[in-house]
Q: What sequence folds into this?
């Protein structure tokens, strides 16, 4: 390193000779696009730099033709009106599978069937909201009539289900997406996923409006003396594992954390156990790329806030020293997601080509 002079026991270096990376002021007069903004943020500091770094890693993930990208979703992102961002990521070919909470898919189905969410007026107390049929999600409202509407959609789908075929979340969401293609006019996550062959897994399916609707459908079949449908979560587990076992490289793009993140990441543990306990001859199967947007700090000890370096110790990720590439944004996803996704989609030419990406669609 370039030494300058000794002063009070210190050897002062020249940062240019030491090849340190400079950071630059954010000049808004030079910003014309979302990508311009995100690239400039990446040359600043703190959370802004995290946003820029995340876009770079997500772009690398999307451009890697040997990489299968899993997007995990938690939090009320569809009530927060982020649904079309997820549609864009699916339609661009940047995402190849989704693992989500059931609530996020249910609220997205509301939007896909032409219903709306509304602003919450804090002058109205929650008891009044309950009596009026308005379910509050922080500063927004989900009318109960919306949920009644999507129950009818699900009942239509389940009424056609072969009783000899077990139900699992990815098959159910695929058929809901098919229903939306036939009957829905607008865009929606499940519709886009069906059209582009992207499976949608909900590992905690019973913890959702759609899970409740499935339970009510079983009650209705019982009342009509029809045999009940059977839900098998291991069909999800095995289909997800088979899909990832066939991939050369894998990446994960996480919004929030929770069950979706853990369920998707535990694949590496499962693959290692298959090999170590003698069930199959397999190499280590770990995620090469990771991008996550979540404000939870690591010191709370929860999975949502855990770092990728911690996950390396579980065999879930390739270490940085072996070529792993990761970015973590500690921010509200409704702020960071549009920036990161918008920048990457612009780089891929998604909007310039009439929402057709230069990314090659992967075989599954």
A:
């Amino acid at each position: 390193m370039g030494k300058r002079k000794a002063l009070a026991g210190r050897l002062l270096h020249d940062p240019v000779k030491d090849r340190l990376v400079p950071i630059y002021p954010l000049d808004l007069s030079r910003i014309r696009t979302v990508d311009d903004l995100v690239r400039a943020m990446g040359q600043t500091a703190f959370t802004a730099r995290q946003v820029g770094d995340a876009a770079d890693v997500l772009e690398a993930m999307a451009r890697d033709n040997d990489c299968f990208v899993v997007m995990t979703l938690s939090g009320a992102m569809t009530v927060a009106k982020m649904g079309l961002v997820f549609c864009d990521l699916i339609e661009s070919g940047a995402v190849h599978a989704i693992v989500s909470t059931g609530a996020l898919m249910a609220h997205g189905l509301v939007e896909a069937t032409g219903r709306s969410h509304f602003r919450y007026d804090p002058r109205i107390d929650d008891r009044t909201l309950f009596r009026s049929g308005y379910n509050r999600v922080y500063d927004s409202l989900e009318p109960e009539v919306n949920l009644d509407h999507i129950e009818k959609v699900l009942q239509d789908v389940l009424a056609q289900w072969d009783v000899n075929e077990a139900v699992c979340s990815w098959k159910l969401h695929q058929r809901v997406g098919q229903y939306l293609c036939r009957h829905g006019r607008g865009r929606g996550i499940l519709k886009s996923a069906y059209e582009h062959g992207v499976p949608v897994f909900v590992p905690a399916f019973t913890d959702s409006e759609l899970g409740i609707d499935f339970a009510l459908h079983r009650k209705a079949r019982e009342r009509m003396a029809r045999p009940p449908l059977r839900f098998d979560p291991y069909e999800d587990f095995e289909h997800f594992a088979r899909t990832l076992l066939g991939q050369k490289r894998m990446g994960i793009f996480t919004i929030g954390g929770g069950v979706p993140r853990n369920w998707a990441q535990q694949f590496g543990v499962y693959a290692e156990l298959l090999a170590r306990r003698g069930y199959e001859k397999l190499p280590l199967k770990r995620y090469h790329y990771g991008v996550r947007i979540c404000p939870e700090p690591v010191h709370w000890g929860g999975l949502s806030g855990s770092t990728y370096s911690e996950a390396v110790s579980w065999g879930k990720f390739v270490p940085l020293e072996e070529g792993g590439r990761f970015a973590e944004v500690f921010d509200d996803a409704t702020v960071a997601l549009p920036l990161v996704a918008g920048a990457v989609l612009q780089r891929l030419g998604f909007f310039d080509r009439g929402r057709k990406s230069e990314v090659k669609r992967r075989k599954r």
Observations:
- The CA atoms of residues 180 and 191 lie 6 Å apart.
